Amino acid sequence: MSVLKTLIERSNNTCELCGSVENLEQYTIPPALNENVENDILVCSICKNQINGDEEMNPNHWRCLNDSMWSEFVAVQIMAWRILHRLKKEGWPKDLLDMMYLTDEALALARATGEDKDPSEKIIHRDSNGVELKVGDSVVLVKDLKVKGSSMVAKQGTAVRNIRLDHENAKYIEGKVGAQQIVIVTDFVKKI
């Protein structure tokens, strides 16, 4: 069974965050690189656009997290935790965060994108042109790179899709070149 069909079945064909039944689609929680049931949730277009920053966050839309944060599925819990952290200045999300429980493993995954950090504490990754990089972006290599520990050379012009960010160093990103997962210095990439 495909990941999307499994998500539709487990969510009863509703958005796993807000309960909407319109414009549903599969969403892979960053920094996951592969689509699978543990990393994906079913969301409506309103939720997805606000999560991705395509639309401004509407705090009232997210009051639904009062219910979805208790989901039995870890991916839904992680996304609820991240959104609540984005909105914690509103007041009510902080109360929900105080009630929420995540296992140590789930909490580590939830913190992987830095949602819980103050904007002044966040590490910002920028490509060779100074454009901000985000989890899930696609980049292209601007020069040939020898991959340490292997005989592989990643050629200039190679596209690296669905990147992950190193949350301790602003110069490092991770991505797949061919079948190999590698760390790339941001000075040698350009956002597509």
TrEMBL record:
Pfam families per record: YjdM (PF03831)
Cited InterPro entries: PhnaA_N_proteobac, YjdM_C
Domain PhnA protein N-terminal proteobacterial: 6-52
Protein name per Swiss-Prot or TrEMBL: PhnA protein
Native source species: Seonamhaeicola sediminis
